Amino acid sequence: MCVLSQNPKIQELDEFIEKINAKESDLIEVLHHAQNSFGYISEELVGHISQKIGVPKSKIFGVVSFYSYFTTEPRGKNVINVCMGTACFVRGADKILREFESQLRMKSGETSIDGIFTIDSLRCVGACGLAPVVMVNDKVYGRVEAKDVNKIISECEV
């Protein structure tokens, strides 16, 4: 834990845990906070959370692996998610994903070497009326076409 304890974000996480008096029933809330702060849930972070709130590491790993929101790998500053739910897929989401892959020269599930982009897909974001949908971090783009990909990339922080 020596590397983790040197991270200033860990103190902020500990303060959050103390503020809500976190216990096992608060695990998902704590994991969301950790994911937002650190960008991913490392094995070391799971151990820290386990000690802090008294939940076995195996249970924490189970929750992290079950929910697609959580990741155990570092993600890019700009996480691009293309919805692949039925409504989005039938309206060309696969072509949009391929266009992102082509323009960023990487495959879905990868993070760029410089840590600026991650491309991924989701099953459904619940915005079927806007299909096809792309999310970049917390920003939602609706009715996206392949020709919009360059503009979406240009709006990302570098």
Automatic annotation (TrEMBL):
Binding residue positions for [2Fe-2S] cluster: C83, C88, C124, C128
Textual note on the cofactor: Binds 1 [2Fe-2S] cluster.
MF terms in GO: 2 iron, 2 sulfur cluster binding; metal ion binding; oxidoreductase activity
Cofactor names: [2Fe-2S] cluster
InterPro entries the UniProt entry points to: NADP_DH_HndA-like, NuoE-like, NuoE_dom, NuoE_N, Thioredoxin-like_sf
Key words of the record: 2Fe-2S, Iron, Iron-sulfur, Metal-binding
A Pfam family of this chain: 2Fe-2S_thioredx
Family to which this protein belongs: Belongs to the complex I 24 kDa subunit family.
Descriptive protein name: NAD(P)H-dependent oxidoreductase subunit E
Lineage: Bacteria, Bacillati, Bacillota, Clostridia, Eubacteriales
